Amino acid sequence: MYFSYRTSRGRKILQLLESYRNADGKPRNRVVVSLGQREMPAELKDEVAELVEAELYQRPLLFPASDKASTEAQRIVREVYRRGKWVPVGSSIQKKDEDAEGMEESTPEAIDGVLLDQVSTRQTTSLGPELVGLHAWNELNMDGILDSLGFNPAQKEAACVQVLGRLVAPGSELALAERFLDGSSLPDLLGLKNNTPITTDRYYRVSDKLLANRDAIETHTRRIVGQRLSLTRTYYLYDLTNTHFEGTCEANPKACRGKNKQKRNDCPQVSAGVCFDEYGFVLFHRLFPGNQNDAASLPKMIKAMQKCADEDGELQGRPTVILDGGLASEANLEALREAGLYYLVNRTRSYRSKLQEAFSQDDAFESVPGRDVQVRKMKDPEGDDELILCRSMARGEKESAIRNRADERLTADLEKLNARVTSGRLKDTKKINQAIGRLRERHSRVGRYYEIKLNDAGELTWKRNDAEATQAGALDGCYVLQAHGPSLSAVDFWHQYMVLTKAENGFRAFKGHLGLRPNFHRLEHRVDGHIFITVLAYQLMRFILHRLEAAGDHRSWPVIRQILQSHCYATIEMPTVSGTTWRLRQPGKPEPLHRSIYQRLQINWLDLPREKIQFQTSEQHRNP
What pTM was estimated for this model as a whole? Predict the structure, then answer.
């Protein structure tokens, strides 16, 4: 076997060819596999061709091969078997045992003409996760919207591979092109047997085109999800997350150092503002500089919310925007009112101290059924909104434990600082006061309750203001919701706010299940494209889980994905006593666990693509 290039429509196509003699003994060449516009280093061509031939004909190698050549050869062998058209020249059914030379050859066992000892499987690839992901892709008519946006068939195919790759095996474009497709059944499901080169550049270009059409694609997914699932949307859940980079990312103006949610303040980051509905689907998203205050992002998002509300045919009346405390500045609340949007926000921790007396009135609270939470409603003394005061015993115990640990850490640090002062290692009064200030800043949760001084003897003294700390501790587990819109009961308002956990679950899926981190890019549009592809993968994941939840299956995507990975495609070779070999490329029969998931998602696994070819394996092989 050897590699050769041919020109087709002005493009260089790499082919693996095989020399053989036909039945008349004349030399001939035939194409083993066409590899498209793939580049093969000149120094590897002969070695890779030799390795492929040895693997296909099951011949031993005389010398060990290099890792690079072995990797490339295995990839080509998988491609040969996946396409299923190549058959061996002059191979023999019966093989002698090299370790038993001279011994009488045993008669192979045959049932219905099939040589059981020689039946083999190869090219086993994961099918289940790809199948449900592709089903969701088709259900949301993603090919339809991409077609209307001017994507050609190869670009639609690459977009599907990119998004499903992020859903099934999150990784970089390099991993997608070089590793994911090798072990996936997506090529079987999509019929990827053309000469389109599978390279990282191809996926980069498609990522750029997806990003350029972001608004149209998000509008499409928002509408079709509502139609397919008959959703009635009344809430918009808005929150932010961030993703950081290990490098400097100097080519991205949005990559800035800021307060990182993963405590990686040493790395540049970008912030992603995402608006969800109450079912956990993404309505739209926008990206912001990593050093921008979270509250500063809301004015821009309000305009997008208004546009979304105008376009959303399933919306009943004006939407209620649910926000976390960090976004609920007075200016933002006023902007929401001016935009004609209702809101329900969690006010900051400092706001609850204004209502300490109201929190102490136990008789005014009512319990939330089935929850360890008490609530009461009152009029906002500073405006026309309603306030919902909430008390949680479990949350109170958690906040109390956090403060006690903070007390212990501050005391330990003060003792260390005092040891430096009394030993003479730290003498300058100015530097001692600076060290005290740094400790107060580091332990801001409890530092304000301590009076710390340097006495005349050159020692540190500190005293805790127990009365003030006890007064603050009385508010542990308490928080305040502020509502603008239709009046509800305190319990209903609390349940309404708890819908925000859908946004938190969405961010957890972005970062944990769908590969938002790490971000492998440094250019602004590539970073934005990486995040958008993650959002699209999340939409498919959420669609799958919503359908399963409606059927009573509340397992997470990682669990579903792990279960389905054992349902695979495989290539089966069955030699027969007549000298004919059957090669079948087909999916395995799903187990009951697989079938239960497919049935809930209404997936027909019986009509999956199959291939079957028949060829002779006698010594006098005809010209194929």
Answer: 0.79
